[in-house]
Amino acid sequence: MTTPVPPAAGDAPPGPASPVDPLSRPLAVGGLQLGRRLFMAPMAGITTPAFRRSVRRWGAGLVFTEMISAYGVHYGNRRTLGYFVHGEDEHPLGFQLFGADADVLADAAGRAVAAGADLVDLNMACPVRKVVKTGAGAALLADPHRAAAITAAVVAAVGDAAPGRGVPVTVKIRSGLREGDGLGLGVAPRLVAAGAAAVCIHPRSAAQLYRGRADHSVTFALAAGSPVPVIASGDVDGREAALRLLDGGAAAVMLARGAVGAPWLFAQVLGADEPAAAEKREEVRRFATEVLETLGTRAVGHLRQFWPRFRRRGALDRALALQLMQARDEAGVRSLLGL
Ligand SMILES: Cc1cc2nc3c(=O)[nH]c(=O)nc-3n(C[C@H](O)[C@H](O)[C@H](O)COP(=O)(O)O)c2cc1C
Predict the structure, then answer these.
(1) Which of 4, 96, 137, 193 could form an S-S bond across to 131 if both were Cys, CB 3.0 to 4.6 Å?
(2) What is the CA radius of gyration of the chain?
(3) Contact between residue 236 and residue 253 where contact means Cβ atoms under 8 Å apart
């Protein structure tokens, strides 16, 4: 069985793409030098350390934690602080924070940098009710004054926590709260004026959640007037979509749902052929092993969301995926995968 020999960030891309491939050109985000322009987006419940290592093996140039509650960090919640745990092989690694209070976010950002964050991203995109009703996530799109004050406070705190390291603060936004309200384009210049080193945009409205298509004409409008890199997220399902976004002015592109159950999509977007089923299966075994080693009693339940996706992406046959869904404990998963 062949094992994938994917690149680490900064190495040459896999497959036939040339060294001048637009996705493999370096990018500076503030003081952070990135080797390529293809990132893994933050995803709650998905982008655990095992997942981040998995997509890094296939070429992700930057990975993010799941969104982390600034309040939880500030008040020392043990479970929240668990999101800070990461391996040395995950860098460059962005920590994404959410919250609504500038002082609390500033404190949490300082702690994130002390814990090893290479970049701090502020979530002003989350549409989930529980988050929005506290004034955090996408709610900040409608409160540009607060959004800018938060950004300025976090930029100052990160500078104090890591003087001279140039750790960038970025902000992830949506196009707005409702389709056509223009809130994303309105708030972005204020975030940049407050010190954001890049803006990441997922151009669906919060009301859309994850339905419909991302409207990247909004991404291009933002990029056209932006003095900082604009990072595009939404519907990147292959190399063509990624190149189209760079062509339109995005500085970098993020994979999200497309890479769940298909971490090798990174290599494909960078120009490699689709890996053989045996290679995919080997990656599944490696990922599952790391999840079992790191998530303890939560591992078997956590893995269940991946089995149908791995099946759809040709890494598992139907019968095995079904058996894995029914596995009740770690021993069951291990025996089915031969671990
Ligand atoms: C299950 C799930 C969890 C997500 N969690 C986060 C998150 O924690 N922080 C964030 O900024 N975006 C989050 N997102 C949004 C993604 O980062 C991304 O912007 C979005 O899915 C659009 O990209 P896609 O169309 O390629 O999936 C999440 C999306 C999904 C589907």
Answers:
(1) 137
(2) 19
(3) yes
Q: 9 to each of 14, 160, 171, 224, 261, how far by Cα in Å?
A: 11, 28, 22, 27, 21
pLDDT value at 3 more than 80: no
The superfamily CATH assigns to domain 22-269 is Aldolase class I (3.20.20.70)
Residues with CB under 6 A from ligand 1: 41-46, 66-67, 96, 123, 125-126, 172, 202, 210, 214, 233-236, 256-258
Count of residues in the chain: 339
What does the alpha-carbon distance between residue 105 and residue 171 come to, in Å, rounded to a whole number?
A: 13
- Is ipTM > 0.90 here? yes
Q: Pull the structure tokens for residue 282.
A: 């080997």
Task: Tell me the pLDDT tens digit for each residue of 196-242.
Answer: 999 999 999 999 999 999 999 999 999 999 999 999 999 999 999 99
CA 256, distance to chain mean position in Å, is: 7
Residue from 38, 39, 40, 43 whose mutation best tests the ligand 1 pocket (most atoms within 8 A of CB): 43
Residues 149, 176: contact at Cβ < 8 Å?
A: no
Of the listed ranges 15-24, 163-172, 188-197, 288-297, the least confidently predicted one is 15-24
Contacts of residue 279, defined as CB under 8 A and 6 or more positions apart, other chains included, come to 1, 2, 3, 4, 264
